[in-house]
Write a structure and sequence with these properties.
By secondary structure, the protein is an alpha/beta fold. 36% of the residues lie in helices and 17% in strands. β8 and β9 form a beta hairpin.
């Protein structure tokens, strides 16, 4: 009982004290004066009375106590008549008030300035910097790749503007990217769609402006508003910085192109992801190649001087560099041509598109003497057969994936889709009526059949018969479909498929889609499978195009369903298995087949991280023994005629006057503004 009463009295006293302090500033000052006097006066008197040298008289001791208290409180120590002592105390109080007020004003001003800086609302006085607008899954990839770029291309400053807390953005970037080296990372807080806020990051004098896609349902509309705000700040002329934006929905592509202006480029993230997923089906290891190709940690695409090859055939350039791989031409008018015919003449003013470590290290060197014709394989490789594919799951990109698979699959192929929702489309038919679908001109396209199942239960996946299928595609749900992370279901599905592999003893070729790159190590896949991280792919593309806008059309063709694409072909199609040959010999063999060889994948190292056997741009004189299981990375043109391609990137051209008709395997010319 005693302890309970003590706590209650303490709580009641604290409550009354807090209530007194909350009344007004005067009450608080009164309590401070009372507290100071209650402590200073008794202690001063005690010091005087215990001092052997203090005066003997009471008045003398009171005067000494007064002097000690006044000196402690800085109220003055003048003695004499009571009037003089009161005037001295008044003068001390006035001085104390003035000094305290001055200190308070300075402290308040500094606090407000620090708060303003922490809110990220100060103007950025940089020139030639890179402006990144928005915050999404791609921000870490984009900023990290720009920081990791070669010194000649690395921006001096990267300014990030997003409607988030400035301190939170700085901590998040520091945690994911680490030290930025000589590149300054500057964060500003505020909505990028507000022209007044957007002007703080000085976009008019920036080298490039990147508008990141948002994962919110209304993210594309916000991207459009941001582009309009950027147009209001920079102006509508052609002297502004290049603008690179990304949207999810195709319906916003045309408005975004108009808002971006003549120097704008717009990516469609869902289309890019769908194309990569479709290309990875039947090409195990392609995602590893593309990831190595797109990041700045290794070799990437550059533009090199072609003066030494002017007037000669393109085929001569393939063996004209020892430390880089030539893959195409950039014509004098800005037309990009990947993997052109070997007899294409290199016109004056053209530049070479090369895969190299650095554009400054690309030097012509004849490597023809390194070719050994005796080990080059003879005869064409066997044609690819029809395949039966299974798609598990559904999201907003699923229709695009199916469209890409239908256009890239061989005639006679079959696409089965298992979803946990009602999707319009033909149901899986009975065996006697399996060929009654898609009459008319699309009869040569693969048949697509749908089936509904409860995919949220692992036993549903464990009960699937996967023996008839040559490849599987796992599509995770959209983030808005539930409270769980979309990668959670994908990881569970991959675990179930891995268990099926162990039960049957058959290795499955699985292409899965993840949204967070941190979940890649958690994906239970075999070395013959691919994991596509949609956000990372978009970020890598934006970083590459931000460094060189001419590469937009290069990646357009690489990721399109027509023209030239990156393929992994058996090494036995180029050199005899078991033979020892240089990489220059492989390049010559690929050239004879109308392809550009840019690397290889070793079968004996496909399970060894971090490269998993992938090596891009090896030295032409590198000699090794080639096995039948090795693969050669080539840029080749699919011989199948395709229709209705989907453009990956299109430079903004509101009038459409500078956009020539696109032909299979070739890309439109850039406008005069772009070619400069």
């Amino acid at each position: 009982m005693t302890g309970r009463r003590s706590n209650s009295l303490r709580d009641r006293a604290r409550y009354r004290f807090d209530r007194t302090l909350a009344r007004s500033t005067g009450t608080l000052m009164g309590w401070l004066v009372i507290t100071c006097l209650a402590v200073v006066v008794p202690v001063s008197a005690l010091l005087v009375w215990t001092d052997p040298g203090s005066p003997r008289s009471l008045s003398g001791r009171l005067t000494a106590a007064w002097r000690t208290s006044a000196e402690t409180l800085r109220l003055g120590a003048m003695t004499g008549t009571p009037l003089r002592m009161m005037l001295s105390a008044l003068l001390g109080l006035v001085a104390l008030l003035c000094v305290s007020t001055l200190v308070g004003v300075i402290t308040t001003s500094l606090a407000e300035r620090m708060a303003e800086l922490s809110r990220g609302r100060s103007t950025v006085l940089e020139r030639g910097h890179v402006v990144v607008l928005g915050w999404s899954d791609q921000v870490n990839t984009v900023v990290g790749e720009l920081v990791a770029a070669q010194a000649a291309h690395r921006p001096r400053a990267i300014v990030l503007l997003a409607d988030r807390d400035k301190t939170g953005m700085e901590r998040a970037l520091a945690a994911r990217i680490g030290p930025a080296g000589r590149t300054r990372l500057i964060c500003r807080s505020g909505p990028p769609s507000d022209p007044a806020v957007l002007a703080l990051v000085s976009p008019r004098v920036a080298s490039t402006v990147l508008v990141l896609p948002s994962g919110e349902p209304a993210g594309d509309a916000e991207i459009l508003r941001t582009l309009l705000a950027l147009r209001a700040v920079v102006g509508e002329g052609t002297d502004g910085p290049p603008v690179l934006a990304a949207v999810h929905d195709d319906r916003y592509r045309a408005p975004a192109r108009l808002a971006a202006g003549p120097r704008g480029t717009v990516l469609e993230t869902d289309t890019v992801t769908a194309r990569l997923i479709a290309q990875c089906v039947g090409r195990p290891g392609l995602s590893l190649v593309l990831r190595d190709l797109l990041d700045f940690a290794g070799d990437e695409f550059h533009l090199a001087d072609a003066t030494a090859f002017h007037g000669g055939p393109f085929g001569a350039t393939l063996l004209g560099h020892a430390d880089s791989c030539v893959v195409g031409l950039l014509g004098p008018l800005g037309r990009t041509s990947l993997n052109p015919p070997a007899d294409t003449v290199v016109a004056p003013g053209s530049r070479l598109i090369v895969l190299a470590r650095d554009d400054r290290t690309t030097r012509p060197a004849d490597c023809g003497h390194l070719v050994d014709p005796s080990v080059i394989a003879e005869g064409p490789p066997p044609p690819e057969a029809a395949a039966r594919l299974l798609v598990i799951g559904w999201n907003r990109r699923a229709p695009l994936v199916l469209g890409q698979l239908r256009h890239t699959a061989r005639p006679g192929s079959v696409l089965d889709v298992i979803t946990d929702r009602a999707v319009p489309g033909p149901r899986e038919p009975e065996p006697d009526h399996a060929h009654e679908h898609h009459p008319g001109p699309d009869a040569a396209l693969p048949v697509v059949r749908f089936r509904t199942a409860v995919l949220s239960r692992p036993e549903t996946l464990l009960g699937l018969d996967l023996a008839p299928y040559d490849g599987l595609v796992v599509l995770g749900p959209d983030p808005a479909d539930g409270p769980d992370h979309p990668d959670d279901w994908t990881l569970v599905a991959l675990l179930a498929l891995r268990l099926l592999e162990e039960r049957t003893g058959r290795e499955l070729r699985v292409v899965s889609e993840l949204t967070d790159d941190r979940n890649r190590p958690l994906a239970a896949v075999n070395p013959g499978s691919d994991v596509v991280v949609s956000g990372e792919l978009t970020g890598l593309l934006m970083a590459q195009i931000a460094q060189n806008r001419h590469l937009a059309t290069v990646f357009d063709e690489l990721f399109s369903a027509e023209g030239s694409t990156i393929c992994l072909r058996p090494a036995g199609a180029y050199v005899r298995p078991g033979s020892e040959a240089t990489f220059a010999t492989v390049v010559a063999a690929a050239r004879d087949r109308g392809q550009c060889a840019i690397g290889y994948r070793r079968h004996d190292r496909r399970t060894v991280p971090p490269d998993h056997g992938v090596r891009l741009n090896p030295y032409k004189g590198e000699r090794r023994e080639w096995s039948a299981e090795d693969q050669v990375v080539v840029i080749a043109t699919d011989p199948i005629e395709l229709t209705d391609p989907i453009d990956l990137t299109e430079p903004a051209d509101p009038d459409g006057k500078h956009r020539p008709e696109r032909r299979p395997g070739r890309l439109p010319e850039r406008t005069d503004t772009e070619s400069r």
